[in-house]
Design a protein that fits this description.
The complex is a heterodimer of chains A (246) and B (303). Chain A has 246 residues and is of the alpha+beta class. Helices cover 30% and strands 27% of the residues of chain A. Residues 6-22 of chain A have low confidence and may be disordered. Chain B is α/β, with parallel strands linked by helices. The chains are: A alpha+beta (246), B alpha/beta (303).
Chain lengths: 246, 303
């Protein structure tokens, strides 16, 4: 399938151009975008032979089943099963690390790149969910900045969060671990380095009181958590609990 | 080859509609040697998509993939003498091939397909400066960027511009990168300093046209096609540019029906193209040239 169009340029002989020494002048052009769709067939032995060893190594890794779900898990706003699942597990995993603790977790809706299917969950599914190599970090912020987070959430309509509760119509009343935000206190927010560095215009992360890098990729935390659940005989699940309401 | 002959004929017929008055028949017998044709094939934001999308994919079932692209490129190389193959950045990140192998495979495949040049997208820094240098060891084509200053080892693999000769044509290529702040973790792009896209593009394009006498200047850009805000984009660059004939863009993953025709700061045409993302499309721009139509004394020259 092709999209084609053609255009002719009108030739203009410019009198008195002082510096144009080019030998060849454009007279006309045509352009198209070839859609590399499934009607195209054929193979290339030389390319296949380059890809094969990489592919084989990857396939065996990606097809490893690490746990199961009984229902598909998808992200949503203001909260979603997959959104809650991911934020909760990152919150839990980072808090289990020695020398790291956080009061809440904030990730980004846009960073969850796919859903988890019903049934077997493979490592490849987690790579699709989280293709980016983002690192989990702990950012210390003032209570005032935490309120900015609440207003950001009200504005965006919700992001994956853990250990907070808010109504999008009254963001100033957000609670952390069930308690109102104290503006004179400081809080530690578990998030990704992408967001901590200003991604998705989360400007409240600018000039933090402190930032600790865990050195662990969020994707690896997810895989780790899912494997741990399997070891204790748990399948994967989460629920909507009204942590963000409208 | 039958197709080639037909295309040529059709082209001559069309260009004569426009050009007959100017050429006044005098160049008729020399027409063949006076003409050159350039095929520019381009991709952007391939994002490590080696395989086609899965057959059950909700939007692009079975679409894309390196093999299909390679076969199409090959068919153009067989059909035409002067073929350029270019990429506008974000080669990396998006499938586990990048996470596991750091871009090595992408570089090998682009080399095999015969890419002439690519510019850097924000995600090409996702493996850090060292990751990019390590991957590039497997890539035998040039990275072009004209608006980043490198205070790191990238100076060894990124060139400010490149001149490629195809047939009798001299093609100048420059590259423009997006502001990395807010897009790339600062530790991953340490020592890369972003400077103004428009002035640097114009400066480099002028050099290519005036000093090196390039017949055609292509800007590989990762700025993005256009924004609602006044953020610099390909369309804004095109309007404020001079000496750039074609901008091949990326970053916004734009699906266009045709390249956008804009007028640059001199009122001359600058084309802006972009070919979706993930290797879903191959952009094809076919440009015809005639020798000596525009000369320093403004007269139609004889060859």
């Amino acid at each position: 399938m092709k999209i084609i169009f053609q255009t002719l340029l009108v030739l203009v002989v410019v009198i008195g151009l002082s510096h144009c020494n080019a030998n060849y002048t454009t007279t006309s052009y045509t352009a198209e975008y070839n859609l590399l769709d499934s009607t195209m067939t054929g193979t290339s032995a030389s390319l296949e032979s380059i890809i094969a060893p990489y592919n084989d190594g990857l396939e065996s890794q990606m097809n490893t089943v690490i746990n199961t779900t009984s229902e598909p898990m998808t992200k949503a706003r203001p909260e979603g099963i997959l959104s809650n699942f991911t934020a909760d597990l990152v919150f839990e995993e980072v808090n289990e690390l020695e020398d790291f603790e956080g009061d809440m977790c904030l990730l980004n809706h846009g960073g969850l790149r796919s859903s988890l299917p019903k049934g077997n969950i493979k490592i490849g599914d987690i790579y699709q969910l989280m293709p980016f190599d983002n690192e989990a970090v702990v950012v210390e912020l003032s209570g005032e900045k935490i309120i900015e987070i609440a207003f950001y959430l009200a504005d965006s309509g919700g992001e994956p969060v853990s250990n907070i509760q808010l109504n999008l119509n009254s963001p100033q009343l957000m609670t952390i671990n069930g308690r109102p935000v104290n503006k004179s206190k400081t809080y530690k927010v578990i998030t990704s380095d992408y967001l901590a560095n200003g991604g998705d215009r989360m400007t409240f992360f600018e000039n933090p009181l402190s930032i600790q890098k865990t050195g662990l990729k969020i994707r690896d935390l997810i895989i780790e958590y899912i494997k741990e659940e399997k070891e204790v005989g748990q399948t994967l699940k989460s629920e909507l609990d009204g942590r963000i309401s409208q | 080859m039958v197709e080639l002959v037909n295309n040529r004929r059709e082209f001559i017929k069309k260009s004569s509609l426009v050009g007959s008055g100017l050429m006044a028949g005098s160049a008729f017998f020399k027409e063949k040697s006076n003409k050159e044709e350039l095929i520019i094939l381009h991709t952007n934001d391939v994002h490590s998509h080696i395989h086609p999308f899965k057959n059950d994919h909700h939007r692009y079932p079975g679409n894309g993939g390196v093999i299909k692209r390679a076969l199409l490129i090959e068919s153009y190389r067989k059909q035409y003498k002067n073929v350029l193959l270019l990429d506008a950045g974000d080669i990396f990140q998006g499938t586990p091939f990048f996470n596991f192998y750091g871009g090595e495979l992408e570089m090998k495949l682009m080399t095999k397909m015969g890419y002439d040049a690519a510019t850097l997208g924000n995600h090409d820094f996702d493996g850090g400066i060292n990751g990019l240098i390590k991957a590039k060891e497997f890539g035998e084509f040039d990275f072009i960027n004209s608006n980043y200053i490198f205070e790191n080892e990238l100076t060894s693999i990124v060139k400010p511009f490149k001149i490629i000769k195809k047939g009798k044509l001299k093609i100048g290529i420059l590259g423009i990168g997006i502001e990395l702040e807010g897009l790339v973790d600062p530790k991953l792009c340490k020592g890369v300093i972003y400077t103004d896209p428009i002035s640097n593009a114009n400066k480099t394009a002028r050099l290519l046209k005036e000093k090196y006498h390039c017949d055609y200047v292509i800007c590989l850009s990762h700025l993005g096609l256009k924004y609602d805000s006044d953020k610099v984009s390909d369309l804004l660059l095109a309007e404020k540019s001079k000496n750039i004939d074609l901008i091949i863009g990326g970053h916004t993953h734009s699906f266009l029906d045709e390249p956008i025709k804009t007028l640059n700061s001199e009122g001359e045409q600058t084309l802006v193209s972009q070919a979706a993302w993930a290797g879903l499309r191959l952009g094809i721009v076919k440009v015809s040239f005639t020798k000596g139509l525009k000369t320093s004394d403004g007269m139609t020259s004889k060859v």
